[in-house]
Amino acid sequence: MTGDTNRTLVVVENDAALAETAARRLVDRVVSRDRAAVCLTGGSSPEGLYRLLGQEPWRAIVPWGRVHWFIGDDRFVPESDPLSNMGMAQRLFLGSVPAPRGNIHPMATQAKSPDDAAALYEKDLKEFYGADTLDPSVPLFDLVLMGLGSDGHTASLFPHSLSLDEKERWVVGVMKAGMEPYVPRVTLTFPTLASTREMLFLVESPEKRELVGRVLAREARPGEALPAQHAYSNGELIWLVTRDVAPKN
Ligand code: 6PG
Hints:
- The protein is of the alpha/beta class.
- 26% of the residues lie in helices and 18% in strands.
- The protein contains seven helices and nine strands.
- It has helices at 15-30, 47-53, 58-61, 85-92, 114-129, 190-194, 209-217; strands at 7-12, 36-40, 67-71, 73-75, 143-146, 171-174, 185-188, 198-203, 236-242.
- The strands form two sheets. Strands 1-9-8-5-2-3 form a six-stranded parallel β-sheet, covered by helices on one side. A three-stranded antiparallel β-sheet has the order 4-7-6.
- β8, α7 and β9 (236-242) form a beta-alpha-beta unit.
- The radius of gyration is 17 Å and the shape is globular.
- It binds 6-phosphogluconic acid.
């Protein structure tokens, strides 16, 4: 695991400011590119951002035809299931904006198994990237959104799981989730998530304040493993949090 990237903490006043700031950062990352790639995340923290992207003025600002939308992890359920991360993104914005269908890249959660879905997604990512090996100087994504679970997980990379150390595979199946909802998952691995111009963590639950403090300080309680501490980015790594989540100095 690698965890030596420089991190920047950006603190905003409230949930509305978090969504606005994330939307601005997203647009700044994609607007000048001929073809851009954004890796979305699940959880509740990006909901405000997703709603904003579907509304004016952001809806008119995003160059939909040039942006591809991927997902960093998903639950192994149909997209129509309320637990589906891509389903949430579809409901909150992708389903109602002029994004070409071919620009939306869901995981194949109808495949036989999470491992099969992972292999298919890895193929999709490699085709999009145009190579089978990630070159640190050529980012796969322009922006990767991330969240922080209350056990310190990020994407579907759970504490003490073998997938934390995966260096070869771009995407892996996760048969046993480390916390609710206990459905199998499919997740990008750390090196794949790191292949980005910017990784942007969004955290807005005040009850995660102490956890955010430990993650950023690279501390952990005895026996605690915090995967989010090991997330890194080949580009920028930003933690965007609301004031009530920011660690107290
Ligand atoms: C998932 C997510 C997960 C999420 C965190 C944070 O599928 O569960 O991708 O990694 O980002 O659990 O969730 P909140 O934003 O709800 O705190």
